[in-house]
Amino acid sequence: MLRKIFDFVSSLKLTIILLAAAIVLVFAGTIAQVHLGIHEVQDRYFQSMFVWWPVGSQGLRLPLFPGGHLLGGVLLVNLITAHLRRFRWAWRKLGIHLTHLGLIVMLAGGLFTDLFSTESTMRLAPGETKNYSEDSRWLELAAIDESDKELDQVTAIPEARLRTGGTIEHSSLPFRIIVRRFYDNCRLQMLDKGGAPAATEGIGARVTVTPLNVDTSPDGVNTASAIIEIVPLPSADEATAAPLGTWLVSDDLGAPQTFDYAGKPWRIELRRKRYYNKYSLTLQKFTHERYAGTDIARNYASQITLIDPERSEDRDVLIYMNHPLRYRGETYYQASFEKNDAATILQTVHNPTFIAPYVACVIVGAGLLVQFAFQFGGFSQRRKAALAT
User: Fold this and answer.
1) Residue 196 CB: number of other CB atoms within 10 A?
2) Where are the domains of the chain?
3) Is the whole-model pTM more than 0.85?
4) Span 122-147, pLDDT tens digits
5) Cβ contacts of residue 355 below 8 Å, gap of 6+?
6) Residue ranges of the alpha helices (H) in 128-282?
7) Which of 43, 273, 36 is nearest to 138 (CA)?
8) What CA–CA distance (Å, rounded) separates 162 from 108?
9) CA-CA distance, 271 to 288, in Å (whole number)?
10) Where are the alpha helices (DSSP H) in 1-67?
11) Residue 343: what pLDDT?
12) What H or E segment, with its residue span, contains residue 349?
């Protein structure tokens, strides 16, 4: 039984089936981008084990087709087992072995890149210093202890945890956070237009929330929000503690909300997920050059000061188109700028396996050259033998 499974997993028939399924998946995902944004297509088609089909309005979903992660993972196993099954060491097969190894490195590198790489942005105004970048897709609920004038103590709760609801506790928080409701998309309106207040404290007491369907169009904009309740941790002589109230947090609110607890000022906000670094970047100057007589950008660049106390780094760096800054596993690209050149936008990419495609291409190229050399050598010998007779 195990032998039959191994034979099937390592068979050429399975390889053809997987490649055909991958072609269908890429075609379907490309067509889906007409109605869905690129990130939505990536999540549904290529960064999932299955492409799911919604059934009815009860949230039931059925697997419709294998997703990119499943196809890529099975193809990687198929390639490895096929190579092990047919592996026979011989110098004349060195090129084939190298080609297979290169393909394995390429598939594994693509999988690890998809799982562990992150993309974010850093907005810097002239003279501004930051040691973090912000994710353009995912959010987090930040509870910030502002009692220390020099350093904020931040507790960040991922968006995925807010979606599950329930009670959230952390050793850095002297209170519990209970997620009463999470909205993937909603509309916020002031109470003077009718409706019930969303919360009892903060701006939520003057705002009403209307749930909306998630806009998955390429240019769609969604307003994520949550209703949270803050409950003090009970003391040793009491079983429960009275809640401090409920707050509305949203990425559409212009300012964070504050409250006092146990003599300390706190701030809560739903914001873009942040990736902190051990170094900081300061924008000294932003240059935006245009072609004469037009508004078409010819070049835009950011003069950055990089300061890393841990490595005693303090130097100026120029980031401009096609000339990124690479430092400590991060790559900063000059991506965009704000209107009237008020700020520069740097795209930040963290990809621990960025070298894998280059290594794979070198290995595959070497394998093809070696195989060609052996084939050419054999052909030359046979030709000389034929001419000698």
Assistant:
1) 7
2) 2-117+355-388, 120-128+278-350, 134-275
3) no
4) 999 999 999 999 998 899 999 999 98
5) none
6) 159-164
7) 273
8) 32
9) 29
10) 2-9, 12-32, 38-41
11) 93
12) strand 344-350
